[in-house]
Write a structure and sequence with these properties.
This protein is of the alpha+beta class. The protein is built from 2 helices and 3 strands. Strands 1-3-2 form a 3-stranded antiparallel beta sheet, with helices on one face.
């Protein structure tokens, strides 16, 4: 997903997907700081990975992969 919003400073990448860590104040953007942490946890439980790229005031890109199901796993 890509946006053209506030972006983020790559120096704070380690905080981006941590619960309750915010890179902006509540006055700037409402929220609790659990959204991206929840996304990462869900993606990792599906065998995937998450990452982000961004620059302040130039937006951000959030990407993810999903793992593959084992060949002998459940059939949907």
């Amino acid at each position: 997903m890509r946006d053209n919003g506030a972006g983020f400073d790559p120096a704070y990448m380690d905080k981006l997907f941590q619960p309750f860590q915010r890179l902006h104040t509540l006055a700037e953007f409402p929220g609790t700081g659990v959204g991206l942490a929840s996304v990462r946890r869900i993606i990792e439980r599906h065998g995937g990975q998450t990452w982000a790229e961004g620059k302040p005031d130039q937006g951000a890109t959030f990407s993810f992969t999903l793992g593959t199901a084992p060949a002998d796993g459940p059939k949907c």
